[in-house]
Amino acid sequence: MTPMVDVAFLLLIFYMTTTQFKPPEKKEIKLPSSHSEIKLPESDLLNITITADDSIFVDYTSKREQVIDGKKQNTMDRIYHEATTQNIAQVINTIRVTVPGGYSMKLVIKADKNVKYGTMADLMDALQAMKINRFHLITELKLDQG
Amino acid sequence: MAGVDIASGRPPGKKTSALRRPKRRVGIRIDMTPMVDIAFLLLIFYMVTTIFMQPQAMEISLPPDKEKSVPIKESNLLTFRVDEDGTVYKNFGKEKPEVFGLDSLRAYLKRENEEKPKLVTFIKIHKDAKYSIMVELIDEMQVVEKLLQQRDPGFSYRFAVAPLSEQDIKDLQAIKTTNKPS
């Protein structure tokens, strides 16, 4: 039995160290699927979430190493705002100003697949007006031939 | 049950010499079953909760200057119009839009791009249509772009996305009513 227990513990330790818990979300989001396989970095992302009922949330999470009481510690910042297509530019700008390195972070849109195209169009217009011309849409990987 | 079993005595047959004082060693056997149970429980918990699939992302680049217009030859302009119920219509230049099935989209786009190297695809989507259809169309175009880049590394697919105009909505409505009786 000992070897089996050894392996079990090894696996346990592996899973314990690699697990990352999903940050809580207000609503479940069903992602659309695409063939794109670009991986995103885990932190320093400005996340725009659009739920199926077309409400928009702007979410910024960053992990930083900070020295607190002489010890290096990983801290997590999370800024969470609700937004509309009208004030999205303002919300993004406030986050960019308050956060160090706010102008270099990547913008990611995580939208439910049932979101109306109109909401996306408004959002993209707002981003374009802010000179954010490059962003990512989070999708699920579509598995088929080709 | 759980507990510590003490092995009784020393193994027989060995005589301790008179010089060395016999060490009193107790063989301890711990019942590991509960610990292993807990370990497995935790293992299963972590295995179930771990998400290995990192989210995939699709890159979108918008033109930096919105007002700038690009002249396109009419025969090179392929337009897809998407109705609010997700029906896709396609047409070239000023042709009449016709219903298009998305199943053959990739082969179609590939063929058209090979025939017309300067093809520009224009996607117009109804504001009430689902966002997933935009992702699907852009995705297919990116797949086609990749396929064609294998032959010509400098190839880049030119496309634009915009909401349907009032006129388009009227046109599509007209097509729908004429198509219905057939």
Condensed summary:
Chain A has 146 residues and is an alpha/beta fold.
Top keywords for this entry?
heterodimer, A: about 150 residues, alpha/beta, 3 helices, 7 strands, about 30% helix, B: about 180 residues, 2 domains, five-stranded mixed beta sheet, two-stranded antiparallel sheet, 8 strands, about 35% helix, elongated
Plain-language structure description:
- The complex is a heterodimer of chains A (146) and B (182).
- Chain A is α/β, with parallel strands linked by helices and 146 residues long.
- Helix content of chain A is 28%, strand content 34%.
- A six-stranded mixed beta sheet of chain A has the order 1-7-6-3-4-5, with helices on one face.
- The longest helix of chain A is centred in the N-terminal third of the chain and has 17 residues, at 2-18.
- Chain A is globular, with a radius of gyration of 19 Å.
- Chain B is of the alpha/beta class and 182 residues long.
- Chain B has two domains: 2-9 and 20-49, no CATH class; 74-179.
- In chain B, 34% of the residues lie in helices and 21% in strands.
- Chain B is built from four helices and eight strands; from the N terminus they run ββαββββαβαβα.
- Chain B has a five-stranded mixed beta sheet with strand order 6-5-4-7-8, sandwiched between helices. A two-stranded antiparallel sheet of chain B has the order 1-2.
- Chain B is elongated.
- At the A-B interface, helix 1, strand 1, strand 2, strand 6 and helix 3 of A face helix 1, strand 3, helix 3 and strand 8 of B.
Which helices and strands, and how do they pair?
The complex is a heterodimer of chains A (146) and B (182).
Chain A: H1 2-18, E1 33-34, E2 38-39, E3 45-50, E4 56-68, E5 71-83, H2 88-98, E6 106-111, H3 117-129, E7 134-141
Parallel strand pairs in A: 1-7, 3-6, 6-7
Antiparallel strand pairs in A: 3-4, 4-5
Chain B: E1 4-6, E2 28-30, H1 33-49, E3 56-61, E4 77-82, E5 88-92, E6 98-100, H2 105-115, E7 120-125, H3 131-149, E8 158-163, H4 166-179
Parallel strand pairs in B: 4-7, 7-8
Antiparallel strand pairs in B: 1-2, 4-5, 5-6
Helix pairs in contact in B: 2-3
